[in-house]
Specification:
Organism: Aristaeella hokkaidonensis
Structural class: mainly beta
Mean pLDDT: 94
Strand content: 25-35%
Bound molecules: deoxyuridine-5'-triphosphate
Protein name: dUTP diphosphatase
Number of strands: 11
Distance between the termini: 36 Å
Number of domains: 1
Low-confidence stretches: none
Largest sheet: 4 strands, antiparallel
Radius of gyration: 16 Å
């Protein structure tokens, strides 16, 4: 069942997110997230730049990608299994929750991934390497849910 569409964020949004970094893929060359086989649940995301995460530290990777999806669906981000198995690499927030209305946030719904390297040695993610995966899942709502607010910002914005 097809319920979502991946697109690139704009050149301007990508440049803003990559400010101060070098050697990243041009936005047009970032491949759309792909499933490895017809039976795979996860869409693999590629890192647009080489990133070395020092021992015990974190790194934020802007993916250049946004996901529009039908209401009632969520995209959950997980590390790619092989990265977790090999390096114990994990998402700093354990799982990334990409809401269906995030695509229309001020930052165009630019999907960001924050990785944590819990090892005592640095880990390098190559430019163009598949490093995390996103799974689309349907979600339910509770009785008497009368939420009407819309999303504007990204992480933590609904506290403000
Ligand atoms: O790993 C992540 C997690 C979240 N997001 C984006 C998509 C999500 O829709 C938005 C807000 O995330 P979430 O709702 O999990 O964070 P929050 O801290 O609860 O923020 P808010 O108050 O905006 O809901 O940030 C990412 O790009 N990467």
């Amino acid at each position: 069942m097809s319920i979502a569409r991946f697109t690139h964020v704009s050149q301007a949004q990508y440049a803003e997110a990559m400010a101060g970094r070098e050697g990243f893929l041009p936005i047009a060359e970032i491949p759309m997230p792909k499933r490895a086989t017809t039976g795979s649940a996860g869409y693999d995301f590629v890192s647009p730049l080489e990133v070395t995460i020092p021992a015990g530290e974190t790194a934020l990777i802007p993916t250049g990608i946004r996901a529009e999806m039908e209401q009632g669906w969520v995209l959950l981000l997980f590390p790619r299994s092989s990265f977790g198995f090999k390096y114990s690499l994990r998402l700093a927030n354990t799982v990334g929750v990409i809401d269906s209305d995030y695509a229309f946030a001020k930052n165009e719904g630019h999907i960001m991934v924050k990785l944590r390297n819990p090892l005592s040695e640095p880990v390098t993610i190559g430019k163009g390497e598949r490093f995390c995966q996103g799974v689309f899942l349907p979600y339910g709502t509770a009785e008497e849910d009368e939420v009407t607010a819309g999303r504007v910002g990204g992480f933590g914005s609904t506290d403000r």
